């Protein structure tokens, strides 16, 4: 089952039941202590996954933690009943943890005291290997020839009690994760990419929490179609009212009021509740019931002084301008960027690594807009290092970028 030969579609065998069954969900301190003892006595890496209720609840809280280790089996733990899981982390010590797309789950696991001492990310490994599809089901099929169902990936994991078929799905997510890791590790070694992967895994493992986004209301889908500062103020005010309502009710903001409704109201700028509910996007029962609150938010925006209206340009950042403006603002920088992108694209094809995994686009833009002086490989390397580029990326790209910059 651990052959390194990619499976074809016809080779895939459905994986429908965990080897030891699903088992019960751990909800008591006594049961958690037993799990900690078993996992501490187990061997090898710890496979882990976490389930959230994105699209249903406010925020990104974790509602189920799945763990598996050789000699210990699989444990499904309810962190709403057992918020402190640090004893589990202590029990496994410095064992490697295996996750798929770890950056999605590590913050939630850390909130419950689970912080891996080392990491193997199967999704990142698949990217570095140039696999065409990197979702967990696709990677399991490619590496092990097993079919992993994903029909419950978007359900409301805050539901209690959790249905048995959801728990089966959750257990299967970690059932063969260590076996997948072993195949991918073998392929990385054969491709000469093991050190690249190690640096990427450590980068993800040690990432600090993201800084708060300035003016997050601008992420309302469709805001780019809203013209004028007054209408943007309506978007902002409705977003703020929606956030307050969603946080108080612990409901996903999109379920409280869809983005399209916010944009529709900003474009129409209704002056009364009847005008607001006449808009098609406010015709639902929930939107009509809360219409007075939404109209109050709109009225606050309509009453603002001009000086308090948001800018049409968005918040100021320390980054370079949009690349589409470079040709007019700095033609030399535009040529640097074009040449640098060609280098990254060619290297991506040669190494079978996605361009964004060779270097973050933001770092590439920044070094092209304001290159260091002198723009040699060493200085460019230091610049990229300051933008969190890893050493393997710097080794590959700094000399090539220096050649491009010298030619422009």
UniProtKB/TrEMBL annotation:
What range(s) does the HRDC domain occupy?
228-308
Q: Which InterPro entries match?
A: 3'-5'_exonuclease_dom, Exo_C, HRDC-like_sf, HRDC_dom, HRDC_dom_sf, RNase_D-like, RNaseH-like_sf, RNaseH_sf
Query: One Pfam family, short name please?
Result: DNA_pol_A_exo1
Query: Could you tell me which CDD domains the record lists for this protein?
Result: RNaseD_exo
Task: Give the span(s) annotated as Disordered.
Answer: 305-327
In terms of PROSITE patterns, this protein maps to:
HRDC (PS50967)
Instruction: Please state what the protein is called.
Output: Ribonuclease D
Q: Which organism is it from?
A: Isoptericola chiayiensis
Taxonomically, what lineage is the organism?
Bacteria, Bacillati, Actinomycetota, Actinomycetes, Micrococcales
